[in-house]
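Input chain follows. Return structure tokens only.
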Amino acid sequence: MLGMALALGAAGFALILAGTRSIAYALFYLAFLPFLTLDPSQGGLVAIDGLQGGNVAWKLGVRTFATLGIATLAYRRRSAVFALLARPASLPVLGLFAWAVIGLPRAQDPWVSFFRLGELLAFFLTGVVLAIEVGAIGVFDKESKNAKPTRPADVVRLHALALLPILISAVAFTLLHPEIAFHESSSGVRRMGHKFMNSNVLGFSSTVVFLWSLSALRGRILGQQREGRALKELLIALLALGIAGYVLYFSRSRTASITALGGVAILFAPWPLPSHQSVLEEAQVLRIRAQRRIAAGIVACSVFMFAALNLSLIQDWFMRGGTAADIATGTGRTGLWHDLILEQVPKAPLVGAGYLNLTANGGFQHAGHAWNNAHNTYLFALVSMGIPGLLAVLLIIGLPLWMSFQRAIRPASSSSYKSLDEAVRDQEAWTLVFALQSIVAIASITGFGVAGYPNVAMLFHYGLYAWVVGAKNYPHSCSAERPQEATHSRGPRPAHLPGFGAAPTVVQSSPRPHSIPRAQFSQSVR
């Protein structure tokens, strides 16, 4: 009971930090808790005594409650849900589900596989409801009673903080039940995870929160945070950074450490800034560009200095008592992948062997053992659902990755926003989304990712999927009329904000007061 109360308290605390009263997001935060093992008498990676165990009943109860809540919200907003599901971007997920159902008779336990597929579809439905909440219909403003879209930075913030309860619970268990929080291998390496949660999953969760907090701190330092909430956001980001850094270090996940470094490189890369309309904005762009370069230089120098001064410590941490050969083979994964490709894939290259057919009851034998995990999302899709399943998984991962990259590399013009700062904040948010999508793509090489047994990465990815691939014209739909332009502009105005996925409305913006166009500026100088 203590662990359950702790997890619920952590979820409530994260919701308070997020500052949302959305029922959909409350259910989303709760949906991550069933992945934890909170009963000290039972372990996540050891035998669990069926439904009689309190931990199993807790998992099923929370997951059922969250799923029924999301289904209820989806039914109440069914017109928007069906409209979003009818979009072409939803076809890869729906196609994956349909194709996997066709191959279920080949699985050893079809009903178990069907139940797991249902969970995958429930995760996707959760993402659809969240997309409607913040992107399609929007969050209703209590004063004006009008729906307005939530900005990308706020959406990513809500999703990143959803993983904070996992990290808070992990830190608390290091004090309350270290025998569950930590695991010591035969080589004497002590890692956080094992019974509480898989170490690699903990590493993924901490990497997401780590990158978000780093991005928030970067925006605060560069002066890109909103006035009035800057101090609060600074404290939240510092708290999240400390917790995420602690869990990331003690989970000792190689994949998480690599993706964390890659994510930092993406965040501090020299991304282009939004186009500007005036000389004053041009000066502001030059200032922001210089600040970004300085920040990137400081981070790069800090990383290189730390690596040079702690080379032996990093080597011991990364090697985990193993050898270079262990890393080269992915701690034995490459042998499994080799056998799966040569022996299992040729048997059913089109339909596959059946969803989750890598079971101890007769799925696949390798090195004298029955395997229930391919340790690779892409290979799992190929083995269990054939070539069509692999293509669907590639689209599910690739579409949001590509779309977020496009929004990061081609930011909207400052004329679509109230100010250049808002345009920069949105571009920073899409850069962070691209970094997080890259984490999912890389983590899927060594884990289940978006297909297979339910996991944190799957829920997180589908939670963002519908919003990322659906908000095509977001910079136009969220753009608001500049306050100063209301009486000075003679161009046509949109009658309403475009709906979710609607065609963009062309807005003819006029020069803003206090914003001098280049031509007038040069004439005035003369």
